């Protein structure tokens, strides 16, 4: 339970484990239910395109997302994969929505074990592929 009184739905944890352990999803979008009492799965996807993920981020509303981010290592080391947690809170979202999402984030984030980095996005430049790639490669959270 978060400071805002919002709980994490069991389905949210199941979907995350499917992504992390089963590689069943490429990304998961989470949001608050209609009563603003629970964090639920809004959508899952197997689409490998990062652009598809970005297209799912609403222009005027908040959400959380988990993305299985793959990237190349320089040299011949091949691909790596890191799970990234996104808090999407665009400047154009309603203030109330931004407040509820900000105060509810910890409840979800603490229950997701195995996340390599956290990205806070208020506009698309902060969640652009190159921005996330730089963050993952540098190892900063």
From TrEMBL:
<dbReference type="InterPro" id="IPR002108">
    <property type="entry name" value="ADF-H"/>
</dbReference>
<dbReference type="GO" id="GO:0051014">
    <property type="term" value="P:actin filament severing"/>
</dbReference>
<protein>
    <recommendedName>
        <fullName>Cofilin</fullName>
    </recommendedName>
</protein>
<keyword id="KW-0963">Cytoplasm</keyword>
<keyword id="KW-0539">Nucleus</keyword>
<dbReference type="GO" id="GO:0051015">
    <property type="term" value="F:actin filament binding"/>
</dbReference>
<keyword id="KW-0206">Cytoskeleton</keyword>
<dbReference type="GO" id="GO:0030479">
    <property type="term" value="C:actin cortical patch"/>
</dbReference>
<feature type="domain" description="ADF-H">
    <location>
        <begin position="5"/>
        <end position="137"/>
    </location>
</feature>
<dbReference type="GO" id="GO:0043001">
    <property type="term" value="P:Golgi to plasma membrane protein transport"/>
</dbReference>
<comment type="similarity">
    <text>Belongs to the actin-binding proteins ADF family.</text>
</comment>
<dbReference type="GO" id="GO:0006897">
    <property type="term" value="P:endocytosis"/>
</dbReference>
<dbReference type="GO" id="GO:0030042">
    <property type="term" value="P:actin filament depolymerization"/>
</dbReference>
<dbReference type="GO" id="GO:0016363">
    <property type="term" value="C:nuclear matrix"/>
</dbReference>
<dbReference type="Pfam" id="PF00241">
    <property type="entry name" value="Cofilin_ADF"/>
</dbReference>
<dbReference type="InterPro" id="IPR029006">
    <property type="entry name" value="ADF-H/Gelsolin-like_dom_sf"/>
</dbReference>
<dbReference type="InterPro" id="IPR017904">
    <property type="entry name" value="ADF/Cofilin"/>
</dbReference>
<keyword id="KW-0009">Actin-binding</keyword>
């Amino acid at each position: 339970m978060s400071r805002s009184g919002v709980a994490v739905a069991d389905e949210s944890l199941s979907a995350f484990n499917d992504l992390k352990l089963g590689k069943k999803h490429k990304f998961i979008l989470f949001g608050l239910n209609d009563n603003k009492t629970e964090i639920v799965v809004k959508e899952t996807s197997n689409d490998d395109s990062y652009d598809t993920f970005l297209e799912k981020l609403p222009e005027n509303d908040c959400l959380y997302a988990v993305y299985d981010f793959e990237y190349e290592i320089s040299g011949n080391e091949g691909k790596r994969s890191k799970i990234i947690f996104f808090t999407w809170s665009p400047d154009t979202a309603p203030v109330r929505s931004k407040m509820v999402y900000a105060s509810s984030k910890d409840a979800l984030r603490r229950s997701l074990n195995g996340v390599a980095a956290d990205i806070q996005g208020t506009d698309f430049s902060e969640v652009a592929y190159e921005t996330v790639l730089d963050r993952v490669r540098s190892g900063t959270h």
